[in-house]
């Protein structure tokens, strides 16, 4: 080992320890054609770093089961937590080219440019959340590349690796694709081209870039000031958006209509599975508006192997070490399945805004981040329906008191519920802003009057069925 290389390696290791202490998450990508030297560079770096907070992820051609999950799912799943490092041997870029080359999920994407949109949104979101993304595109002379392949072929124990090279994306296809992707995404987080024709120089170049980027990240972190957490609420706020809290529904009509809708819902579930369309249902609303009871009636007749309910509570310590969307992105449905969120990613612009858990900048930029996140779900072919259940203040008080005075319902009422009630007006404003800024044509908010629980349940079921029938053409 040369003195220069050793010094660079030690400096890199020292800086990574400092980014670990500063809670800066680092992502290092290695792209390049087969036998370009990227595996040697990645391993060189991996050996230099502390294994306690360094992970390695190698992108592979997706299996049939992988294709049932969103395109970026493996990368959400393998994000580094704050203060950790993940080295990616190939990345979402190689994955996109793989999808395009082999026509994967063509019936869903139609145009693979939508995957580039997903990549751009993904990287921007991470960078805004403090992630450092370092991207290397490894090049090599064709003569050196062929030497690597021939050497691999000569050894019986490594011959399989050479055969794997032959089944990779064709070199010219990969090079042409990466050239376009590098140009399209360099402005988000810059690419570094490394020529591996001379090994030691390539290693030194890699370390120098990482050192420069980590020093800049640490300097930026040091200058960073604590962001204010101002919900920016309006004094004496009023809105007529939620005044319609009552729908008529007799007990007799409810008992007749509910079973019919639930039977149709079960048929819808089977149709979703057959056509491999994921359904995502989001429930938000005022405390005691009946979200749990509403969800129960939606799933009451469903096949339990085909749906899951996510009851969202305050994030855990582990979840707080990732971007706020992470815990939802790693829990999305496979194709043909139903995922129901009892509370959701909208916590960032509701409770976190109201309670000051998110800085002003964080909750204000979340509207666009959430719309982009939901757009990626739509790109993946999902049906997304969002319900907001509303009731009036007097009805909420009545339900609170009923829960408090009924022994088997007391677990449903907490001190936090009473505190939230005191903030009724600012929750109204946060809710209105959320609906105004994130309701889109393809992922609309459906406001459900919830003073009458029976009517609210029927309206939700009818809405789900109508959306699914239209999409599935049944």
Automatic annotation (TrEMBL):
Coiled coil: none annotated. It comes from the Bacteria. Pfam families: PPK2 (PF03976). Residues 7-221, 249-470 form the Polyphosphate kinase-2-related domain. GO terms for molecular function: transferase activity. Keywords: Transferase. The keyword Transferase applies. PANTHER family: POLYPHOSPHATE:AMP PHOSPHOTRANSFERASE, POLYPHOSPHATE:AMP PHOSPHOTRANSFERASE-RELATED. This is Phosphate--AMP phosphotransferase. It comes from Macrococcus lamae.
